[in-house]
Design a protein that fits this description.
Blueprint: E1 2-5, E2 7-8, E3 12-14, E4 21-23, E5 35-38, H1 46-59, E6 61-62, E7 65-67, E8 74-76, E9 82-88, E10 100-107, E11 113-118, E12 121-122, E13 132-137, E14 144-151, E15 162-168, E16 171-172
Antiparallel strand pairs: 1-5, 1-8, 2-7, 3-4, 6-7, 9-10, 10-14, 11-12, 11-15, 13-14, 15-16
Length: about 170
Protein backbone atom coordinates (compact mmCIF):
# COMPACT_ATOMS: atom_id res chain seq x y z
CA UNK A 1 0.00 0.00 0.00
CA UNK A 2 1.36 3.41 -0.80
CA UNK A 3 0.75 6.32 1.53
CA UNK A 4 1.28 9.87 0.37
CA UNK A 5 1.30 12.70 2.87
CA UNK A 6 2.71 16.12 3.69
CA UNK A 7 4.97 15.24 6.60
CA UNK A 8 8.34 15.53 8.27
CA UNK A 9 9.62 11.96 7.88
CA UNK A 10 12.10 10.11 10.04
CA UNK A 11 13.38 8.24 6.98
CA UNK A 12 12.29 5.69 4.43
CA UNK A 13 9.42 3.58 5.67
CA UNK A 14 8.54 0.05 4.62
CA UNK A 15 7.02 -2.94 6.26
CA UNK A 16 3.93 -4.98 6.93
CA UNK A 17 0.27 -4.29 6.65
CA UNK A 18 -0.46 -2.03 9.61
CA UNK A 19 2.91 -1.30 11.17
CA UNK A 20 5.74 0.75 9.73
CA UNK A 21 9.44 0.53 10.41
CA UNK A 22 11.47 3.71 9.99
CA UNK A 23 15.05 3.46 8.81
CA UNK A 24 17.73 5.92 7.77
CA UNK A 25 18.57 9.46 8.87
CA UNK A 26 16.00 12.12 9.80
CA UNK A 27 14.92 14.33 6.89
CA UNK A 28 13.11 17.68 7.18
CA UNK A 29 10.48 18.33 4.50
CA UNK A 30 8.95 21.75 3.85
CA UNK A 31 5.16 22.12 3.98
CA UNK A 32 3.46 21.16 0.74
CA UNK A 33 6.01 18.44 -0.01
CA UNK A 34 5.06 14.85 -0.63
CA UNK A 35 6.42 11.84 1.22
CA UNK A 36 5.53 8.31 0.12
CA UNK A 37 5.04 5.40 2.53
CA UNK A 38 4.75 2.02 0.86
CA UNK A 39 3.12 -1.04 2.38
CA UNK A 40 2.44 -4.48 0.95
CA UNK A 41 -0.24 -6.86 2.15
CA UNK A 42 -3.37 -8.80 1.27
CA UNK A 43 -6.59 -6.97 0.37
CA UNK A 44 -8.24 -8.31 3.50
CA UNK A 45 -6.02 -5.94 5.55
CA UNK A 46 -7.06 -2.76 3.70
CA UNK A 47 -9.79 -1.86 6.23
CA UNK A 48 -7.27 -2.17 9.09
CA UNK A 49 -4.88 0.12 7.23
CA UNK A 50 -7.63 2.69 6.60
CA UNK A 51 -8.48 2.64 10.34
CA UNK A 52 -4.82 3.12 11.26
CA UNK A 53 -4.52 6.02 8.79
CA UNK A 54 -7.57 7.73 10.33
CA UNK A 55 -6.10 7.38 13.84
CA UNK A 56 -2.74 8.78 12.70
CA UNK A 57 -4.44 11.74 11.03
CA UNK A 58 -6.42 12.45 14.22
CA UNK A 59 -3.21 12.34 16.31
CA UNK A 60 -1.26 14.36 13.73
CA UNK A 61 1.61 11.88 13.87
CA UNK A 62 2.89 8.72 12.25
CA UNK A 63 5.30 7.40 14.87
CA UNK A 64 7.90 10.14 15.17
CA UNK A 65 6.72 11.83 11.95
CA UNK A 66 4.64 15.01 12.45
CA UNK A 67 1.87 15.67 9.94
CA UNK A 68 1.31 19.19 8.60
CA UNK A 69 -2.09 20.57 9.61
CA UNK A 70 -4.84 19.56 7.18
CA UNK A 71 -2.92 16.55 5.87
CA UNK A 72 -4.99 13.91 4.13
CA UNK A 73 -3.67 10.36 3.89
CA UNK A 74 -4.36 8.03 0.99
CA UNK A 75 -3.02 4.65 0.00
CA UNK A 76 -2.71 2.32 -2.93
CA UNK A 77 -2.78 -1.36 -2.18
CA UNK A 78 -0.28 -3.78 -3.64
CA UNK A 79 -0.06 -7.35 -2.46
CA UNK A 80 3.34 -8.73 -1.57
CA UNK A 81 5.23 -10.37 -4.40
CA UNK A 82 4.57 -14.10 -4.28
CA UNK A 83 5.27 -16.82 -6.84
CA UNK A 84 2.30 -19.19 -6.77
CA UNK A 85 3.25 -21.90 -9.27
CA UNK A 86 5.16 -22.88 -12.39
CA UNK A 87 3.49 -25.70 -14.34
CA UNK A 88 3.50 -27.35 -17.74
CA UNK A 89 0.31 -28.15 -19.64
CA UNK A 90 1.23 -31.81 -20.28
CA UNK A 91 1.87 -34.77 -18.02
CA UNK A 92 4.78 -37.09 -18.68
CA UNK A 93 7.44 -36.64 -21.35
CA UNK A 94 6.83 -34.10 -24.11
CA UNK A 95 6.62 -35.74 -27.54
CA UNK A 96 8.66 -34.34 -30.39
CA UNK A 97 6.78 -31.93 -32.72
CA UNK A 98 4.04 -31.26 -30.13
CA UNK A 99 3.24 -27.96 -28.47
CA UNK A 100 3.81 -27.40 -24.78
CA UNK A 101 3.06 -24.36 -22.65
CA UNK A 102 4.65 -23.36 -19.36
CA UNK A 103 2.59 -21.20 -16.99
CA UNK A 104 4.05 -18.99 -14.27
CA UNK A 105 1.46 -17.70 -11.80
CA UNK A 106 2.36 -14.91 -9.38
CA UNK A 107 0.60 -12.49 -7.09
CA UNK A 108 1.87 -8.95 -6.67
CA UNK A 109 2.04 -5.49 -8.11
CA UNK A 110 0.72 -4.63 -11.56
CA UNK A 111 4.26 -3.38 -12.30
CA UNK A 112 5.91 -6.78 -11.84
CA UNK A 113 7.67 -8.38 -14.79
CA UNK A 114 8.19 -12.00 -15.80
CA UNK A 115 11.31 -13.49 -17.44
CA UNK A 116 11.81 -17.05 -18.61
CA UNK A 117 15.12 -18.94 -18.38
CA UNK A 118 16.19 -22.33 -19.71
CA UNK A 119 19.14 -23.98 -17.97
CA UNK A 120 19.97 -20.61 -16.41
CA UNK A 121 19.98 -18.64 -19.69
CA UNK A 122 17.41 -15.99 -20.62
CA UNK A 123 14.88 -17.22 -23.20
CA UNK A 124 14.68 -14.52 -25.87
CA UNK A 125 11.70 -15.50 -28.02
CA UNK A 126 12.35 -12.69 -30.52
CA UNK A 127 15.77 -14.14 -31.39
CA UNK A 128 14.83 -17.81 -31.16
CA UNK A 129 15.30 -19.90 -34.30
CA UNK A 130 12.23 -21.94 -33.39
CA UNK A 131 8.61 -20.88 -33.04
CA UNK A 132 8.33 -19.79 -29.39
CA UNK A 133 6.09 -17.19 -27.81
CA UNK A 134 5.31 -15.48 -24.52
CA UNK A 135 2.09 -13.93 -23.31
CA UNK A 136 0.94 -12.19 -20.14
CA UNK A 137 -2.67 -12.99 -19.23
CA UNK A 138 -4.92 -10.39 -17.57
CA UNK A 139 -5.33 -10.31 -13.81
CA UNK A 140 -7.68 -13.07 -12.66
CA UNK A 141 -10.31 -13.00 -9.90
CA UNK A 142 -7.75 -14.14 -7.30
CA UNK A 143 -5.39 -11.23 -8.12
CA UNK A 144 -2.99 -13.57 -9.92
CA UNK A 145 -1.03 -12.70 -13.03
CA UNK A 146 -0.05 -15.52 -15.38
CA UNK A 147 2.86 -15.48 -17.81
CA UNK A 148 2.98 -18.14 -20.52
CA UNK A 149 5.91 -19.52 -22.49
CA UNK A 150 4.84 -21.60 -25.48
CA UNK A 151 6.93 -23.88 -27.69
CA UNK A 152 4.98 -24.74 -30.85
CA UNK A 153 6.96 -27.79 -32.04
CA UNK A 154 9.12 -29.35 -29.35
CA UNK A 155 12.45 -30.90 -30.28
CA UNK A 156 15.62 -32.02 -28.47
CA UNK A 157 16.88 -28.42 -28.28
CA UNK A 158 13.94 -27.63 -25.99
CA UNK A 159 15.01 -30.13 -23.32
CA UNK A 160 16.11 -28.52 -20.08
CA UNK A 161 15.12 -26.90 -16.82
CA UNK A 162 12.84 -23.90 -17.26
CA UNK A 163 12.69 -21.18 -14.64
CA UNK A 164 10.31 -18.26 -14.28
CA UNK A 165 11.69 -15.10 -12.64
CA UNK A 166 9.21 -12.57 -11.28
CA UNK A 167 10.43 -9.13 -10.26
CA UNK A 168 9.23 -5.75 -9.09
CA UNK A 169 12.02 -3.21 -9.24
CA UNK A 170 15.01 -4.74 -7.45
CA UNK A 171 12.98 -7.52 -5.78
CA UNK A 172 13.16 -10.85 -7.62
CA UNK A 173 11.72 -14.32 -7.06
Amino acid sequence: MTWKTNAIPAGAVNGGTTAAKATGPAVAVAGGSEVMFQFFGPKIDSSRVREAMEKMTERGRIGNVSLVSGTKLSFRQDVGLMLQSVVINQKGPIRENTEFILSCVAQGSSTMSFRWYKNGYFVNVTKATRNMWTRLLPLDSKDHYTALLGINRANRLDEGIYTCQVSVGEHKL
